[in-house]
Amino acid sequence: MKRVVMTPATILLMITCWLMLAGCGESRQPYAGLYRSLEPYAGKGHVDLELKEDGEGTWKLAKEGTVIKFKWRVEDNRIWVYTKEGGIIHVTPVEGGQKLTVDMTGQWHSSCPVEKCIVFERVKSGGS
């Protein structure tokens, strides 16, 4: 019986591939699109939230024109938003991804606290 010997380079390549696949998370496609807040945010108008399939996103205050860019991923049917400053915002898709509840407390809650929750409704599917 012939033994197969793996070189260190082959082992390293296998580990790298495994880590890349493990870090990919779930598909972003079901949630990619443009969303708008149902209510004005902090007296500054509605918020437009764009989730692109490539993991990029924008948060735009419609009245001010302020745009914040971020990265996002999906894990356990939840959306994790990562700001450039290091903040993490937790988003829970509801109604099959047609609405998103955004928990601005920075913690997971079984239901979004009303005073710290922004609800978004899908305006347009897709995105990229």
Which tags fit this structure?
Lipocalin, 1 helix
Structure description:
This protein has one helix at residues 8-22; strands at residues 33-37, 47-51, 56-61, 67-75, 78-83, 88-94, 99-103, 117-125. By secondary structure, the protein is mainly β. The protein has a single domain (27-125), classed as Lipocalin (Beta Barrel). An 8-stranded antiparallel beta barrel has the order 1-2-3-4-5-6-7-8. A hairpin with a 4-residue loop joins strand 5 (78-83) and strand 6. The radius of gyration is 19 Å and the shape is elongated. It starts with 7 loop residues before the first helix and ends with a strand.
| Order of helix and strand elements from N to C terminus | HEEEEEEEE
What name does CATH use for the topology?
Answer: Lipocalin
CATH class: Mainly Beta
Sheet having the most strands = 8 strands, antiparallel, barrel
Beta-strand content bin: 35-45%
How many E strands? Answer: 8
CATH architectural category: Beta Barrel
How many domains is the backbone divided into?
1
Q: Which helices and strands occur, and which strands form pairs?
A:
Layout: H1 8-22, E1 33-37, E2 47-51, E3 56-61, E4 67-75, E5 78-83, E6 88-94, E7 99-103, E8 117-125
Antiparallel strand pairs: 1-2, 1-8, 2-3, 3-4, 4-5, 5-6, 6-7, 7-8
